[in-house]
Amino acid sequence: MATYYVRKTGNDANAGTSAGAAKLTIQAAVNLATTAGDIVYVGAGSYRETVTLAASGSSGNPIQIIGDYSGAQTGDAGVVRITGSNDDFTATRANCITATSKSYVTVSGFTMDTTTANVVYLSSCVGVTIGSCHLSRPASGSVTLLIDGASQSAITVQQCYIVGGSGARCIGVDHSSTLSNVGHVIENCIVLGAQTTASAIGCSRVGGVTVRNCIVGMSRSGVVIATALAVGQTWTVNNCLFFNTATAMQATTTAEYVENYNCVGPDVTTARTNVTAGANSVTRAVLFDTRWWHSLVAGGNVVSPFDLASYSTLVEYNSGTGAPSTDARGASVKGTYREWGPLEYDSALSTSGGSALGLPIVGSAIVRGVG
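The structure assignment produced for this chain is given below.
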């Protein structure tokens, strides 16, 4: 087993075996990580490349590709970003992560965005985990995270924030013919659609998937089986919060969908279509913790979900006409420039502190789980 390093100060001619001799591109390091248990640590910065998984690990000993947000391994702390854009505006590459017939690889700790197709595309993969990632801005009509292929099995998506593109699903689990007992798990994720024409999590013909402890909303529908499963196959959906959708849960027949301990907000038009209500599911308002907002507008210094990224092309634009002299935090505008929106970009902001919680993922309507 070996450990490899990637940094924006690196060089692909380097060995990549230490932070001081890091590779420059993620792909160069991934190409070296060919043995089960190998690890690739990636330092902060924007990596303008498509990363193709090159090798497989083994069950219980995966190859790991880790965005080193804390900087503990690479010395470079901050957001570790893979983008399909060369200018942070126009997409030029199809994917950020792509893999075909790879097994037991974990990808974690990355922001991924701005692609001409799927942000993450896994075809016929087994035991791959996508964790602690933020995925957004696929091309119009492209699924943000797409899982397909005849040999797909045991894919885990966990602790991710996934935003859908225009007219497409956030997470898609598909195949051209029916597949059974695939064993995928989608858990502890925030999944938000981009508009009202697609589902947040959608399936065609693939059975044996569990969705649990997710926030799902702002889409045409929540968790949907759009094309029939094989007879006897199901999706299991537990402990999820659904809000601001036309339909929360949907299947082609009631036999395909098992749900329990879910909360469907009253802002959902139709709670279930061809889905039998779980005995412990409820209909209640989904109320998120707002302390981060009050801390922010009371002069707090905590980064909110609405602060622009340092790589946003909307940072440092001329103020235009009638811009307020302070932003929503009460901070004075910096110099003669002003960012778009209510919040000034400030590199000194903290990710913790005060009474703010950061991302508002705690709901008052969470119900007791099924264990």
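Interim note for the steering committee: The longest strand covers residues 215-227. Residues 353-368 have pLDDT under 50 and may be disordered.
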